[in-house]
């Protein structure tokens, strides 16, 4: 394996590896870390998933509330229970999905 090239820090003239993002001596930023294309896709998927889940839960609960207006007491109670179960399942899916995508985002952090 080849050794990384050595450069001088523009701030303190300390010898630094070209793979370093900052100077270990003075802390000057040498290059900005960038996320790869897969990492960018993971971040996009993370945010898109979270936005989708918010809209899905909000839209579903609003639709259920509006549909209960013309129901009898027993029908409204059943619809409320069903809505509660559905929202609970969606929150569980949201939590699991956010954890998985969050871990993937951490694993593809900028280098």
TrEMBL record:
Keyword Membrane among record annotations: yes
Membrane-spanning ranges: 41-59, 79-107
Domain Zinc-ribbon: 9-30
Keyword vocabulary terms for this entry: Membrane, Plasmid, Transmembrane, Transmembrane helix
InterPro entries in alphabetical order: Zinc_ribbon_dom (IPR026870)
Pfam hit, one: Zn_Ribbon_1
Stated name of the protein: Zinc-ribbon domain-containing protein
